[in-house]
Amino acid sequence: MTVFKKIYDVVCQIPKGKVATYGTVATLAGNPRWARVVGYALHNNPAPGIIPCHRVVNREGRVADSFVFGGGETQRKMLEDEGIIFEADGHINLGKYGWK
User: Fold this and answer.
1) Is 82 exposed, middle or buried (0-12, 13-18, 19+ CB in 10 A)?
2) Which of 3, 18, 21, 22 could form a Cys-Cys staple with 38, CB 3.0–4.6 A?
């Protein structure tokens, strides 16, 4: 199984209304040092709409300004549509919305 496939398998498990950090996805895919690789994999998502890459955020609970499918505002809107509420400073409360 390729590294990207492992990452996509983990991302597909993140439920609607929850988020995971790049580091969490990396760890669950097999190597905590793969956080950047997670970013590369999601940037090359072969199945947008099926692999929910919008549910992956940085370690501070912030969306990616370079979200490949429309930028950070698009990612934010997609998460808000799933019921995630952003704090006033723009981050997501990982204690509440973080997928464990």
Assistant:
1) middle
2) 22
Q: In order of start, what are the domains of the chain with their CATH numbers?
A: 3-97 (1.10.10.10)
pLDDT tens profile 81-97: 999 999 999 999 999 99
Specify the range with the lowest mean pLDDT, choosing from 2-6, 62-66, 95-99: 62-66
d(CA 29, CA 78): 24
- What is the rounded distance in angstroms from the CA atom of residue 82 to the CA atom of residue 57? 15
Report yes or no: 97 and 83 within 8 Å, Cβ to Cβ: no
Q: What is the pTM of this model?
A: 0.93
User: Does the active-site annotation cover 12?
Assistant: no
Tell which residue, 49, 1, 5, has the closest CA to residue 25.
5
Q: Which token pair is 89?
A: 């400073």
